[in-house]
Amino acid sequence: MPQDATLELRVIRHPILGDQAPAGFVEIIVDGRALAAREGETIAAALLAAGIRVNRYTPKHHEPRGLFCAIGQCTDCVMVVNGIPNVRTCVTPIAPGMKIETQRSLEGR
To answer: pTM here?
Structure first.
């Protein structure tokens, strides 16, 4: 997989997860679309580097939400990851082949 040209947009130093070790790129699937992500970076960081800003929609008014606190304290960045809803993407590291979906309800879909 080719190196990502947006390396300067990636989170290398994280206040909770610490400094990220050098890593290669892996493929993840986000809402059915294949993306390159740096192995070990947070899901939220990979999405931001790919230009994705919406992680979920509020259940009542269907308003978009994205990264807010970036340290795992709020729930604005939750998404469905490998079929599991309510995963905090700001502190969850990327793994090869992850399937990530925009969350549209408390139960995930």
So the answer is: 0.80
Cα 76–Cα 17–Cα 90 angle in degrees, nearest 5: 15
Q: How far apart are CA 85 and CA 1, in angstroms?
A: 28
Alpha carbon distance 6, 16 (integer Å): 23
Say yes or no: domain 7-101 is CATH 3.10.20.440: yes
102 and 53 in contact (C-beta within 8 Å)?
no
pLDDT, tens only, 17-62: 678 676 789 999 999 999 999 888 899 999 998 999 999 999 889 9
Please say if the pLDDT value at position 2 is more than 60: no
Q: What sign has the CA pseudo-torsion 64, 32, 35, 92?
A: positive
